[in-house]
Design brief:
Helix content: 10-25%
Largest sheet: 5 strands, antiparallel
Distance between the termini: 31 Å
Strand content: 35-45%
CATH topology of the largest domain: Alpha-Beta Plaits
Radius of gyration: 16 Å
Strand order of the largest sheet: 3-6-1-8-7
CATH class of the largest domain: Alpha Beta
Number of strands: 12
């Protein structure tokens, strides 16, 4: 199966806190500045690194905003440089961006792979999809979770896939799993330990 090659556009970001559910507002802010991002359903936004606090979700030190883009859309990324993103009453200030080639890792993690099914059926669906993509690997299903907005809720599970060959790791990062990549769902990133599922 042919899979579109992807590249990560990485931006330095500064700010204090963001709302606990920021993904929908973040996407709206990105599309406000670069409407072309919405033209490609493969465009993805890697979840921001945050930690909980009484004031909201704190951005991690040296946090980055990472967009996963097809080659046809990498030409738009630099238009986000220096932009201020309004996120539900909070603000993220973007620095300069750069393109970063995706690297293979034997263990990958997605914060949320969308599914309305129970865990057994979810893992069956994932295994079937990986077989379609020609990807091997072992699955570890994490907690059931959801993203809730005023008009929409996305349910799913966190997921670790390990024992990946280099080619399979790249294919999984390019292809992702499921829908709603723009909200960080089904986007896979390197994971250092398979014993600490979030």
């Amino acid at each position: 199966m042919d899979i579109a090659l992807m590249t990560d556009a990485v931006f330095d970001v500064s700010g204090d806190t963001i709302p606990p559910i920021y993904q929908f507002a973040l996407w709206d802010a990105l599309v406000h500045h670069v409407p072309e991002l919405a033209e490609d359903p493969l465009t993805g936004v890697v979840p921001l690194r945050t930690s909980a606090s009484e004031a909201g979700m704190l951005l991690a030190k040296r946090s980055k905003l990472v967009l996963r883009l097809t080659a046809s859309h990498t030409g738009h990324f630099d238009r986000l440089a220096g932009k201020r993103l309004e996120i539900g009453g909070s603000a993220l200030q973007l620095g300069q961006g750069k393109l970063r080639e995706i690297q293979p890792y034997p263990t990958l993690h997605s914060h949320l792979v969308g599914s309305n099914k129970d865990e057994v059926a979810f893992l069956q669906d994932v295994a079937a999809r990986l077989a379609e993509l020609g990807i091997g690997g072992k699955l570890l299903c994490g907690m059931r979770n959801s993203l809730k907005a005023a008009d929409r809720t996305i349910h799913g599970y966190s997921l670790v896939i390990h024992d990946l060959k280099q080619e399979d790791s790249l294919r999984l990062q390019y292809a992702g799993l499921g829908d709603d990549r723009r909200y960080g769902c089904g986007i896979f990133i390197p994971y250092k330990s398979i014993t600490d599922l979030e």
